[in-house]
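So, can you check?
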Amino acid sequence: MESVELQVQVPAKNNGNESKPANGNGNGRAFAIKPTYVRDPHPMDLPWKIAWNPETCIRCGSCVSTCTFGAIQSELQKQGQTLSAGPVPKPVDASQIILAIKQVSDTKHYCRGCSMCEKVCPTNSIRPVENEHHRFPLVARHGASPIKRGGRGHHIPIRVLDYLKVGRISQMTDPSLDAARHTFDLLTPLGRGLPADELPLKVENGKLVPSGWTPPLRWIYPVMIGDMSVGALSWRMWEALALAVAYLNEEHGMPVRMSSGEGGMPNRLLKSEYLKYFIIQIASGHFGWNRIIKAMPEMATDPAGILIKIGQGAKPGDGGLLPAEKVASHIQAIRGVPKADLLSPPNHQGLYSIEESVQKMFLSMNAAWKFRVPVAIKVAASSTSVAVFNNLVRDPYHIVGGYFLDGIQGGTGAAHEVSMDHTGHPILSKLRDCYLAAVDQGKQGQIPLFVGGGFGDTGDLAADAFKAICLGANGVFSAKIWLQLAGCVGNEKGRCNACNTGHCPVGICTQDPRLVARLDVDTAAQNIVDYFLALDVELKKLMAPIGNSTLPIGRSDALVAMDKAIAERLQVAYAC
């Protein structure tokens, strides 16, 4: 597109003759204004603008060296000024060359608002300012590239969890419990449960004796760390999560479990006793499974479970992506791939129906561990979730060990913005539909329901988990909150959210050794442990008032909704 030049005549001094027109032949000057087109970005077109104070800046360069996105740079600028010199004031024009901070307007190196420059500035002379009038959705698509901004979930106007309150309080007719002194059982099953009439038991000499095979079942903590792979996270962040999980299990007796995410696991962990705290995930890319299969004869213990990932809530129906920038040498070794973009198909290529998934995937994974390990499936919440769940409930082999539902508010670093903003389904309504479908068949509790997607977004994961459990969930899985506890600066309002770039400013979602070194593993692990311990107390503080010493799975009578439409949809009491 050619620029359109607009000729503007600027009047020149004409000694008082105002009617004399200016022209370009000495009496005036002409210059061209070139409009900035949509594809030519300016800092005012970007989501964040850099506010820099040259008066207080000491030009130390900390901000420029800290910015991992190359969004600011230093340059020499000529600064003019007019001075009055001599005993009789006489204006004198002067100029000087100064070192200035300039914002880069390139859409590949734009400011993400991470505030790292502000954090390192010793004089508080620079900070990012949110630009409400930006036109980034237009300028960012230059070069036919869709916008990709990872690390956040969908923006939805109503957070349903905030409209639900614990409204049934046991007081006189049904006394509440003492949260500080009562004993609580905060465990939930992972694995297929059998009704009493199907248990393989018989009576011999007045005792119950096993008479057949029982599906494997593990009792775990109802809040688990969701899928984040070695590759999506830096090795130090993944190590911090693993340390926190091991410490909670070994020192505090909290059976917290962590999903490995797609991408395999380190050999040392696969062959250690700590494998029992991890759920190994297999997804459509099958990344890292060669190493897992080879390590099986040397495994000291079985994993906590196997999770077959069909889809995820932040980008349902879309395959995963690990950009080449994050495929470091250790990732290549674990996944057995070259340094390239690693794409996962949107579905398992050998599966074309729900029945096939049961017969092929579940049967093969159970057989691989000789039917000792629960095998669960993870899908994105959608209009078909109940149909999938009903087919799994009717599984004649009793080998489906769990149903993981992921809603649209889940974050990801591997999705295009159009997928995150315009596809998916809220999680609570699908959770409720699945639970009530099982209740209608009298099969609730046979396949445990775990849900994720937006839990803990406001920092109150215990309250979110409790409400989901009352609606029918056996437990919840969350991921982003653990990264935020480790120092992630991203949020739902557009700050940072650059997990997909490989330039994470705090060393959490990158494989760049210089950036990874910014993360303190021990501090991150300690923060995660502290939060879990506080969450445990908060769960008990919510269970005690309703008089439950065990998880109130399906106790929707304990909840009230402060919105009538929400109350009707979730079938809970409406309170105003």
Remarks:
- The chain has a mean pLDDT of 89.
- The CA atoms of residues 296 and 352 lie 29 Å apart.
- Residues 160-574 form a domain with the TIM Barrel fold (CATH 3.20.20.70).
